[in-house]
Amino acid sequence: MIRASVAAAIAFAVAVPAATLGAAPASVEDRARDFLVLRLKEALVLTDGETAEVRELIHHSEDRRRELRAARAKIEEEIRRKLGTGTPGKGDAAELDRLVGEANRLDEELALLPEKNNRDLQRMLTPEQRAKLILFRPRMQEEVRRAIRQRLEARGAGTPPN
User: Fold this and answer.
1) What's the sign of the alpha-carbon dihedral 22, 23, 27, 29?
2) Interior CA angle at 137 toward 131 and 139, to 5°?
3) Contact 137, 118 (CB under 8 A)
4) pLDDT tens-digit profile of 79-128?
5) 40-76 pLDDT tens trace
6) How far, CA to CA in Å, does 50 sit from each of 12, 18, 44, 47, 160?
7) Could you write out the three-class secondary structure of 98-143?
8) What is the pTM (predicted TM-score) of this model?
């Protein structure tokens, strides 16, 4: 029954464009975020208030991820500019070291963001909900991988490596 309601909600979200509801069209990221919140609500039996908190947590996380990616792109631009000037001098070498260190720091923060979100989410939950999350998370990760694989195959891009 729960799977049927999830399937119905997803079908509705995909079939009815947001524009027909008087809102701006939702991005793929927005739909994915809403799907995740819906799945968490069902799996963890969240109240409406808890669901709103989870939605806010995920929203802030996505904002942070975008900020980190933008900062990383800026660092890459600076590195390309430094390397494009020919043989780096001593001052350039120090600057390149600084830029590489900053890129590494951003990469690490991006990589750790999902775990930070998981910890933050668990702080909001009851012990029973945390236990359900531990069991749910691997299933959800597999669902996401499967959805990505299906999308890539539908586009003709092939199957990503496991």
Assistant:
1) negative
2) 120
3) yes
4) 998 888 766 566 688 899 999 999 999 999 999 999 999 999 999 999 99
5) 999 999 999 999 999 999 999 999 999 999 999 999 9
6) 23, 24, 10, 5, 35
7) HHHHHHHHHHHHHHHHHHHHHHHHHHHCCHHHHHHHHHHHHHHHHH
8) 0.69
